[in-house]
Write a structure and sequence with these properties.
Pathway: Carbohydrate metabolism; tricarboxylic acid cycle; isocitrate from oxaloacetate: step 1/2. This is Citrate synthase. It catalyses: oxaloacetate + acetyl-CoA + H2O = citrate + CoA + H(+). Keywords: Acyltransferase, Transferase, Tricarboxylic acid cycle. The protein is mostly helical. 54% of the residues lie in helices and 5% in strands. The chain has 17 helices and five strands. A three-stranded antiparallel sheet has the order 3-4-5. Strands 1-2 form a two-stranded antiparallel sheet. Strand 1 and strand 2 form a beta hairpin. Helix 6 packs antiparallel against helix 17 and helix 9 runs antiparallel to helix 10. The structure holds acetyl coenzyme *A. Acetyl coenzyme *A (ACO) binds next to loops.
């Protein structure tokens, strides 16, 4: 195993495994990844089939409950989520108190953390019906919270949900519509966003998901655990990468649009520059999600008439990387985030909204993983060991004598 050291301590052997490169922390039936072959399956179903044929709420049900729902079950689940999309007035006021230019990920984490203060009846982690209520509340409110994050940045009020519309369709209406105006969504955009949410819905024990499990292992409630996951996702090496990819593409464009020159900087590791949206801890082959997103990016940008130089720069970077020894030898391929920012931008989202959109998609995965963890009799409170390398015992020195 790479990077693993086994050490003998007073209480037996300790494995030193920075970044958990080789340490499995749980058994799971939810998501299967084969990083060498570029395979991703949710509950056994290949990701490309789900992206092509399913919908976000159906995939949420599948991840959380383990099986594809019957039509009756799916209708009931969707209707229940829809019915809960309205947020309490006090909650809206709370979200409205953050500065307009606050980073939406900070507001999102705070909002998820604050949610159960309005629903104290949804907190018992060991009662199945209560956990199902919390599940529905999180899926429903996350949609409203995300749309309001966008509107707040533009100084616009929260819109009321329309229970007659679908999850993604109404999310887009609540995000982009003028108050009291009819709003028709473009089916190509609804379909593309639905696909993106499906592709982000789970990815086994990544940084944010293991955070959710770790926090939940102390029997902290589902909301507190997911708020921690949102914070973990905010980092540029994780969910924040989609925002960084667009910044990188814009930077290349503003510096004269020369991808080859930028790639030389990456390879020479100048100022620690990395090709954002490339590389993955598990995929040492093409990320199967990236292939689906790339196709979608082409279609959406063409349909919306928003195809611009940034997509060409991205494609050129990928072309260079796929033929360059630096990237080939390190098995660096585009990950899911390489093309998502371009789609979100074409849809009308600011870069700061890209990671909240990732979080909206990841909610079902976090919920499913937390529920699996809490119901697994083998779960123990997460408590890693360490290898102490500090001072040995020494005597306190009075401040006057230091
Ligand atoms: N650009 C250039 N070089 C890279 C990149 C990159 N994007 N990623 C890895 N490398 C190089 C490293 O410099 C290192 O080279 P070295 O052996 O000469 O030192 C080698 O590849 C291995 O890299 P590690 O950082 O050890 O790989 P690790 O598995 O720890 O990191 C990570 C994975 C964080 C995703 C990394 O590839 C990265 O920083 N990518 C860019 C950020 C990104 O796109 N993150 C999104 C991840 S997917 C997601 O969260 C949905």
């Amino acid at each position: 195993a790479i990077g693993v050291t086994s050490l003998l301590s007073s209480s037996g052997h300790i494995t030193y495994d920075p970044g958990f490169m080789n340490t499995a922390v749980c058994e799971s039936k939810i998501t299967y990844i084969d990083g060498d072959q570029g395979i991703l399956r949710y509950r056994g179903y290949p990701i490309d089939q789900l992206a092509e044929k399913s919908t976000f709420l159906e995939v949420a049900y599948l991840l959380i409950h383990g099986e594809l729902p019957s039509k009756t079950d799916l209708d009931a689940f969707s209707a229940r989520v829809n019915r809960h999309t309205l947020v309490p007035e006090g909650f809206r006021t709370f979200m409205g108190t953050f500065p307009v230019n606050a980073h939406p990920m900070a507001v999102m984490a705070s909002a998820i953390n604050a949610l159960p203060t309005f629903y104290p009846e949804s907190l018992n982690p060991f009662d199945e019906e209560t956990v199902e209520l919390a599940t529905v509340l999180i899926l429903a409110k996350a949609r409203t919270i995300t749309s309001y994050l966008h509107r707040r940045r533009n100084g616009e009020p929260l819109l009321y949900p329309d229970y007659s519309r679908g999850y993604v369709d109404d999310f887009l209406r609540m995000t982009f519509s003028e108050p009291y105006q009819a709003y028709e969504t473009d089916p190509v955009v609804v379909d593309a966003l639905d696909k993106l949410l499906i592709l982000h819905a789970d990815h086994e024990q990544n940084c944010s998901t293991s955070t959710v499990r770790m926090v939940g292992s102390s029997h902290a409630n589902l909301y507190a655990s997911i708020a921690a996951g949102v914070n973990a996702l905010s980092g540029p090496l994780h969910g924040g990468a989609n925002e960084s990819v667009l910044a990188m593409l814009r930077r290349i464009q503003s510096e004269g649009g020369d991808p080859a020159a930028f790639m030389n900087k990456v390879k020479n590791k100048e100022d620690g520059v990395r090709l954002m949206g490339f590389g993955h801890r598990v995929y040492k082959n093409y990320d199967p999600r990236a292939a689906i997103v790339k196709k979608s990016a082409d279609a959406v940008l063409e349909t919306l008439g928003k195809r611009d130089q940034l997509l060409d720069i991205a494609m050129e970077l990928e072309e260079i990387a796929l033929n360059d020894e630096y990237f080939i030898s390190r098995k660096l391929y585009p990950n899911v985030d390489f093309y998502t920012g371009l789609i979100y931008q074409a849809m009308g989202f600011d870069p700061e909204m890209f990671t909240p959109l990732f979080a909206l998609g990841r909610m079902p995965g976090w919920i499913a993983q937390w529920r699996e963890m809490i119901n697994d009799p083998k779960t123990k409170i997460g408590r890693p060991r360490q290898v102490y390398i500090g001072e040995v015992e020494r005597d306190y020195v009075d401040v006057a004598a230091r």
